[in-house]
Design a protein that fits this description.
The chain is mainly alpha-helical and 238 residues long. It folds into 2 domains: 82 residues, no CATH class; 144 residues, Serine Threonine Protein Phosphatase 5, Tetratricopeptide repeat, CATH 1.25.40. The chain is built from 15 helices and no strands.
Length: 238
């Protein structure tokens, strides 16, 4: 396809463009990162984001892209959907189709921008499906980045949820829980202290998964880069 990408592109044209970029070598390379490649074409996230930027937001087209079942098209769908129009039912349906950590983490970014993000976190954490539960903790991690006006209390309220599911030994859940805990602890000094206290409790438990989550979080939250950034943040507020 030689036409320049533009907001006028239909879902079918976007998909055709994606197919023209697919790389079997890159597709196979994704296996090294634990990504399922059944539905992928082999296109980097950077290229996907560039495509989304050029075709711009179109809520209806986003749902057509999602229905293609192609992972790259679904990621672009999440970037070009309108979070103000994205319902809880939409989120439940999309999350129910998650089958790999990369699509979870990409689409969770959209979920955090919706008005019902906190309700979805609670709901998805209670869901026993591995990738749906991971979604809850990916959303917590993204919310730390994107929900800049939220008070500390919002994130403190997620710590009990993290503690509850810190014994879920499934790989993509435990890594999601760990990511959420570390993200909260990097937001500011107050949250760092609270997240570190939880990390220490987890590290001292008899549960192998919780211990791993706690010890890994301690390393990150007490590391020189994290402490230097928090110190700089505190200095800027003085």
């Amino acid at each position: 396809m030689t036409a320049e990408l533009s907001p006028s592109f239909t879902a079918a044209e976007v998909i055709a463009y994606l197919r023209s970029l697919g790389s079997e070598e890159k597709r196979q390379g994704m296996r090294r990162y634990g990504i399922r490649i059944d539905r992928t074409l082999g296109i980097s996230h950077g290229v996907q984001r560039d495509i989304a930027r050029k075709i711009k937001r179109n809520h209806e087209r986003a749902f057509e892209l999602w229905e293609s079942g192609i992972t790259e098209a679904q990621f672009i769908a999440s970037v070009t959907a309108d979070p103000r129009r994205f319902t809880k039912a939409d989120a439940r349906r999309w999350a129910g189709e998650f089958d790999s950590w990369d699509i979870v983490d990409g689409v969770s970014d959209l979920f955090v921008e919706t008005d019902h993000w906190r309700e979805l976190i609670e709901e998805f954490a209670a869901d026993d499906r591995e990738f749906v539960r991971r979604t809850a903790f990916a959303m917590i991690a993204w919310s730390v980045v994107h929900r800049k006006k939220e008070p500390n209390e919002t994130f403190l309220a997620f710590l009990p949820l993290i503690e509850t599911h810190a014994n879920d030994e499934r790989n993509f859940v435990k890594k999601g829980v760990n990511w959420a805990l570390r993200s909260i602890g990097k937001r500011n000094a107050k949250l760092n202290a609270e997240a570190l206290a939880l990390s220490e409790r987890l590290a001292a438990t008899d549960d192998r998964t919780a211990r791993w989550i706690g010890k890994d979080a301690i390393r990150d939250l007490t590391g020189p880069k994290t402490l230097a950034r928090l110190e700089k943040q505190a200095a800027n507020k003085r």
